[in-house]
Amino acid sequence: MCLTLVSGAQPETSPQTGTTADAPLMIDSATGRSRLNYPPHLGADIEHVRLELTIADMNLRRLEGIASLRLRPIGRPVATLALNAAGMKIETVECAGLATTFEVDAAAERLTITFDPPIEIGSTRDVRIIYSVSEPIEGIIWTVESEAFPGRAAQLHTQGEAESSRYWFPCADFPNERHSSEVIVSVPNGFTAISNGRLIAEESLVTTTRFHWRQERGHVAYLMSLVVGKYEVVDVAPRGSRTRMPVYVPPGQGAFIPATFGRTGKMVELFERLFDEPFPWDKYAQVLVWNFAWGGMENTSATTLIDTTLLDRTALLDGDEDGLISHELAHQWFGDLVTCRSWEHIWLNEGFATYCEKLWEQYRNSKVSAGSSLTPDDDAYLWGILQDMRNITRNDDGLDPFQPSMQCKCYAHPIDVFEKAADPYSKGAAILHMLRERLGDEAFFGSLAVYLDRHAGRSVETYALRRAMEDTGGISLQRFFDQWCLRPGVPRLTLRHEWKSDDQTLAIRIEQTQRIDGGSPAYAFTLPVWVRTAGGDRMVEVPVDQRVTEFTVALDSEPQSVVVDPRLTVLAEVVVEHPQDRSAVLWLTQLRDGPTLAARVQAAHGVAMAVALPRPDAPPHPMFVPALDGLVSVIENPSLNYGLRQSATEALGVLANPANDGQTPTETLPPPSTFPDRNAASALMLLAKAPIDDARVRRTIIEQLARSVAPGGSADEVTRGQVLSLLSERFHRDASYAVRAAAARGVGTMHAPDGLALLREAMTTDSFADRIRREALEALAEFDTKEGFDAAVRLLVPGNQQMTRASAAEVLGGLAHHDAARAVSVLAATLSDHEPRVRFAGAAALGRIGTPEAKAALEKMIRDTPSREFRHHLEQAARP
Asked: 8 exposed, middle or buried (CB, 10 Å; 0-12, 13-18, 19+)?
């Protein structure tokens, strides 16, 4: 699953107990009962699930079903079977040849079936459950026709992850059970039903059409899928492919499919080659749906995607959706073919899928067919890894002893494992990158092939991956997995170096500054330091395993460049303190000639800080002009990776206005105490007028230009007027949605009341995914006025795009003081909305308001909602 929302103690071995505002207790403080989560007992193996479903009217939100489950006892005869079933009416339960009774526990979401006599070891039995589902609030997102969206057909899609399949069929709703499946569904004529596996039959009757799908290979319950809607279909499989690759989009939008999804076949071919494992399912469908709560969901052979995945021609100027598409495709191996056995191991699904996004970027321009030589784009690959590492170093601080680690049994609801600070997406991808650097490509990819061969069709825990890598790479990895998977936080390093000319040595001092105590010892790793001297380049490997490490290396001459960990082999926050008299020169040399993109990105921020003004009346740094020229030359160079160009632009923004944090700098560390420089602001102005080729770079230039004249900068009113005029010009003339949205957002960054006319125009401007209007609303909110409040109320009503409505809820939560009663009333209504994003955003906004009335609305819905997942979100929002 690819999230578009993202939170979640110490490894389970910790004896400590306690709580914070952000972490659940590991024990119940009143009783001492453990709150750690373990896989449920199976008792019986569910070998096959067959669903026969009838949907009489797509506008009624009701389905009738017959679930037939084939059971085989494990270990002992089965007298009772507990299944997960929620929000459904169970009519009858039957098992041929046995007397069968059943009991429903709605609060526990459990259906308990009793067999007399018990099902014997060695036999199999089919249990037949007749049930119905009406007005589902979880598990099925059912969008009916509405006057708010004229001409849009009704549609439904299921969403099983984490434990929501129980809301549309009785099942063992945990990833330690796998089964084959069949979905036979009758829908009104004109609608198409899509599910997992092969289409066995499609039969048109008088008023209905019956679709029969069968998935032969076993999968877990959360990966079962049903989508019903009206679609245009284009198969993007390359000629000669053994796998069908249909893409389902709303009618009339098929022409846009090739530009967005046309590289799917090449992705499949690349992953088959890298993993030495053929695509494991009968087809690969990608299905766009309304009101999807996330980015994508990797249901076996039938990925569900948010409707904004399909880009129009203008949206493609701002980049493609290959990251999302490759992520969900990679799950077909990692997450579907091999699945985490319990939620604490979700990184085996999400970390791999996130890492595979980077593999695609690394090889997307290569010939990937067998026998061809892959040509890597290491800049694109390392840029992706760098973003994941920054996400973790910003959020996974490890300061709280009860902060959950990436791999931890401590969660209140399984959705917590996807949203924790030790993000299994980014941290998992970073761990895989570190393992690749440590093992080398041959052993790393060889170990992935072993892992898939050993465990295909099974659910596994992390040790299975470790054993495959140890067996293939020949090295012990238990310490590695323990410190990166089982403890929260990352190393925080300060590195200083000094050249000692008397004995021709470079002295390196590395200090670990993160929390170090009995439960969190110093990390152990090898830190590479790349050094260039007159005699050439060399990599110095510094072993680190204590709070302070001092290391000396003999060199032929004083270093011309000292670069720490240029290939990002250690997931750490690293502060490099060059000797003050050479800092600017060393950073500028690294910016120009660094051995990797990661090294050059690090240098962009470093060179800016080295030449920044230490006080308002200070003379320019002697290296200021070369530094400015160096940053600008990077930004203007179309042959360089866009991420490096963005980083250089952000460095200019920090120089122009270090006080404004409206745009987060590339580096995770806040800038030191420096003062704004007019020359950097002028450079940004010139760049904004220049013909920059890449819309992503142009957007960053506009963002940083607005930052340069925001409060804290040195711009006078004339300059602010010039910037505002330029923002208006970019808004009206740039082809890119993202650049135009940034121009509108910049008015808020500047806090420029004379730019409100531009914002009002942006609020009426349509764009793909409503991007311009959303950012205009957020900019308007910066002025904290009743106008912004009223705009948020208008955009929150049905008929607006779901992400716009969610943004409006967030803005309303921040501006509620303008009319608290109305804000609470409007937001409380969203708690019953059928769009999940809007419900979640409305709950969060009420929690932010925090008045007794807002809390009362949350508490009422906590009592009333039948959805366990939404109840959890409500409880989080209501928490003080």
From this structure: buried
The number of C-alpha atoms within 13 Å of 395 and in the hemisphere containing its C-beta is 22
138 and 198 part of one domain: yes
Report the alpha-carbon distance of residue 507 to residue 495 in Å, rounded: 11
Domain contains 384: yes
Q: b/e for 530-562, b at 16 or more Cβ within 10 A? A: bbbbeeeeeeeebebeeeebebebebeeebbbb
Q: Which residue has the tokens 């920059």?
A: 692
Give 526's strand partners: 543
Q: Could you tell me if 420 and 522 lie in one domain?
A: no
247 belongs to a structural domain: no
Instruction: Round to the nearest angstrom and report the end-to-end CA distance of the chain.
Output: 30
Boundaries of domain holding 459 = 343-485
List, in order, residues 6 or more apart from 368 with CB less than 8 Å away: 266, 269, 270, 273, 374
Query: At 860, which CATH number?
Result: 1.25.10.10
Domain for residue 693, yes or no?
A: no
Q: For residue 14, what pLDDT is reported?
A: 29
Beta-strand relationship, 536-544 and 548-554: unpaired
The Cα–Cα gap between 365 and 54 comes to 46
Number of domains composing the chain: 4
pLDDT at 190: 97
What pLDDT score was predicted for residue 715?
80
Nearest Cα to 662, choosing from 762, 740, 573, 778? 778
pLDDT digits (tens, 9 = 90+) for 565-581: 999 999 999 999 999 99
Tell me the longest C-alpha to C-alpha distance in the chain. 95
Whether 358 and 402 map to the same domain: the answer is: yes
Per-residue pLDDT at 25:
60
Q: Report pLDDT for 30.
A: 83
Same domain? 551 vs 451: no
Last residue of a domain, one of 204, 230, 256: 230
Angle between helices 624-636 and 642-656 (to 10 degrees): 140
Half-sphere exposure of 43 (CA within 13 A, CB side): 15
Report d(CA 364, CA 372) in Å as an integer: 13
HSE-CB of 76 using CA atoms within 13 angstroms: 6
Please check whether residue 703 lies inside any domain of the structure: no
Do both 831 and 872 map to the same domain?
yes
pLDDT recorded at residue 26: 76
pTM value?
0.95
Regions of the chain where pLDDT drops below 50: 5-24, 662-672
Q: In this predicted structure, what is the pLDDT of residue 9?
A: 27
Distances (CA, A) of 817 to 243, 785, 813, 824: 56, 10, 9, 10
Domain match, 421 and 556 both: no
Cα dihedral across residues 305, 311, 317, 318: positive or negative: negative
451 and 497 together in one domain: no
581 burial type by CB count under 10 A (0-12 exposed, 13-18 middle, 19+ buried): exposed
- Judge if 480 and 555 occupy the same domain: no
Q: Quick one: what percent of the chain has pLDDT higher than 90?
A: 89
